Amino acid sequence: MNTLPQAIQERIAQWLEAGEIEVFIGYERGPVPLRATPAFVRDPKEVGRLIWDATCENNLVAFLPKYRGKKVGILVKGCDSRAINGLIQEGQVQRANLKVIGVHCAGVVDPLQVARRLGVPVEALEQVGLEGELLRANGVTLPVAEVLYDLCKTCAQHNPVVADETIGSEIPDASRDEAFAHVREMEALSSDERWARFTQELERCNLCYACRNACPMCYCNVCFVDRTMPRWFNQTTTAEDIQFYQIMRTFHLAGRCVGCGACTRACPQGVNLRLLLDKLRLECLELFGYEAGINPQVEPPLRTYRQDDYNDFIMSD
Ligand code: SF4
Ligand code: SF4
Ligand code: SF4
Known about the structure:
Blueprint: H1 6-17, E1 23-28, E2 37-41, E3 72-77, H2 78-89, E4 98-103, H3 111-118, E5 129-131, E6 134-137, E7 140-143, H4 150-153, E8 165-167, H5 176-179, H6 181-187, H7 191-202, H8 210-214, H9 239-252, H10 262-266, H11 274-288
Parallel strand pairs: 1-3, 3-4, 4-8
Antiparallel strand pairs: 1-2, 5-6, 6-7
C-alpha cells in the first residue's frame, strides 16, 4: 500500500479547504486482499487515507454521474481518464467542476492470476503486500508485471488524457496492433467458430449486472433491462436473454466505450467482455477514425452527419 505523494496530498487538502471541491474520490486500503476500495474524502485532515498502487482497479469515474453539478476531485488512471472526456461530451459532467489527479499507470494486479500462480483459490490469498515491482502472497514473491490484468499487459492508454496534477512519469503505450490482437484473433475465425466462442463465453454470465454497474458510461437512470413499460427484456438466465443483454449493452456503448476494462474486471464469472466491446471500438476506429474519450472536442460518429459517411453496412434490396 502506498499513500499518495506528500505534494499531492497537500494539493487535495487545499482544494477541500478552499471549497474548490466538496469531496475527493480516490482509493484506500479495503478488506479484500489485493483490491483497494473506493474512498470518499470530505475532510482535508483525512487525505492521508488515500493510496495509489497496483491494487487500485476500479474506474472511479463511474461515480461522477452521481455528483452532477457538484464540485468533485477524483483520481484517475490513464484508461479511466478517457471516461471523463466521454462524460463531458455527453453533458454528464463539466470540466470546470472537476479537479483531476491523473496517474501514469503501469497496470493493476489480477488477484485471480496471483491465485492461479500459487495454486490456491482466490479466497485463500493471505499476507499479501506490494514492494516496488514485486508482490508477496502466501509466502511467495512474484513480479507484479507477470500478474497484471490482460488489458494492462497491452495497454494503449497508460497516461492520463485529463489531469490537473499527475503522479509518476510518462509510460510508453502498446501499439494498436498489440492492443487489438485479441480482436484480430476472433476475426480470423469462421462465423461458426465465432458463434461458438461467443456462446461459450456467455454461458458463464449469470446476469448479476456488475459489468453495467462498474462502467462509467452506463449511467442511465433506468437501464433498458429494468424498464417495464415497455418491457424490453425478460431477465431470465436463458442463453437467449443473456445474449440479448450483452449484445444490447455492447451496442449502447458503440462509439462510447473507452476501453477501460472495468466491466471485465468486475465480472465475478470471468466473462471476457472485451471480446465484444473491443470489436466495436476497433470498428469505430477503422470506419470513422474515432476513439472515444481521447478528445472531447471531436464529435462521436453517432452524433455526426456526413454526406460521405461510410454506408456499406446499410442493407438494401
Ligand atoms: S489499462 Fe492501462 S491505464 Fe488502465 S489500469 Fe491497465 S495499465 Fe493502467
Ligand atoms: S464498457 Fe467496459 S471497457 Fe467500455 S467504458 Fe464501460 S467499463 Fe470501460
Ligand atoms: S458481470 Fe459478468 S456475470 Fe455479471 S452480468 Fe456482467 S458478464 Fe454477466
